């Protein structure tokens, strides 16, 4: 499963830093999820989608 978290965050008008601050996490973790260097939990994906106003499915790159 390929993720496009940082891209979706930007498309929704947010920065990775803003979202990471709301999640109390290091902003680098968001790009680590995309690069598969860190595993994301469903709960974290849901929280990100809630913050930026999208569906969890929007965080997944289906290409």
TrEMBL record:
MF terms in GO: DNA binding
SMART domains named in the record: HTH_XRE (SM00530)
Domain HTH cro/C1-type: 5-59
Superkingdom, taxonomy of origin: Bacteria
Coiled-coil features, chain-numbered ranges: none
InterPro entries assigned: Cro/C1-type_HTH, Lambda_DNA-bd_dom_sf
Protein name: Helix-turn-helix transcriptional regulator
Biological source species: Gracilibacillus oryzae
